[in-house]
Amino acid sequence: MQRFGQVIGLRPEDAAEYIRLHADVWPGVLAKIEACNMRNYSIFRYKDLLFAYFEYIGDDYEADMAEIAADETTQEWWALCGPMQQPVPERADGEWWHTIEEVFHVD
Amino acid sequence: MQRFGQVIGLRPEDAAEYIRLHADVWPGVLAKIEACNMRNYSIFRYKDLLFAYFEYIGDDYEADMAEIAADETTQEWWALCGPMQQPVPERADGEWWHTIEEVFHVD
Questions:
Q1: How many CB atoms lie within 10 A of CB A22?
Q2: CB contact under 8 A, A44 and B102
Q3: CA–CA separation, A16 and A107 (whole Å)
C-alpha cells in the first residue's frame, strides 16, 4: 500500500458548492475510485487549499489513474468540479492535484 | 474511529531539520501516540505548510491528547520541534495544530 498526500487550490467563490457536491459524490465516481484501487480517501479544506489523503492498494498507479481519467462519469464529474479548483503552481506536468512529500508516518 | 486533518506552518529555515527529525521520531514519542489511540498518522509538507492526517480510535479524545501533552518525552520532543512550527492564525484557543474541515470521505 502506498499513501498519497495531494493539494489543489479551491476558488473561494465556489467553496460552498464544492462542499455541497462532495457531501454526496455520484455513485459512479465512487465506484471507479474503488475499482481503481484507491482506498480511505479523504479531502480536507484549509482556507483556499484542499488537501487529499488516500491509500493506493494496486500495483500500477499510472494505469489506474488513466482508467479513472478515461471514465465517462468521472469526466462529467470533473467537468463540474474542475473549474472550482485551481492547481497549485508547483504541480508537475500531467498533475492536476499536486502530490506532496510525506515527512512522517506511523501506523 | 474519527479522522482528523490538521495544519500548521513550518518555518522555512527549519524545514530540513524538521524533516530529518521526523524521519526518525523518538520511540517514546511514538509509543505515547499509540498508547493514546492515534493510528495511521502521517504528516505531509506543502511549501511552508504541514498537513497531518490521523485516525483516532479511542473514546475520549481530549483526555488522550492531555495524556500526550503530559508525557515528559513528548514534552522534550515538542521543545525541539515546536519552535520550528508556526501555528496558523485560524487556530482555536488551545490548539497548536489547527484541525480542519473534512469535505469528502470514501472508504
A1: 16
A2: yes
A3: 34
Enumerate the β-bridge partners of residue B7: B51, B98
Which residue of B7, B45, B51 is the best one to mutate when testing the A interface, meaning the one whose CB has the most A CBs within 10 A?
Answer: B51
Reported ipTM: the value is 0.96
Radius of gyration of chain B, Cα coordinates, nearest whole angstrom: 14
Q: Which residues contact A36 (CB under 8 A, 6 or more apart)?
A: A58, A64, A65, A67, A68
Chain B residue with minimum CA distance to A19: B103
Distance set, CA A94 to CA A54, A79, A97, B27, B85 (Å): 19, 17, 9, 39, 32
Q: How far is CA A85 from the centre of its chain?
A: 11
pTM (two decimals)? 0.97
Determine how many CB atoms are found less than 10 A away from the CB of residue B97.
18
Q: Per residue in A14-52, pLDDT tens?
A: 999 999 999 999 999 999 999 999 999 999 999 999 999
For residue A44, give the C-alpha cell: 480536507
Which of A77, A95, A11, A4 is CA-nearest to residue A45?
A11
CA distance A60 to B44: 23
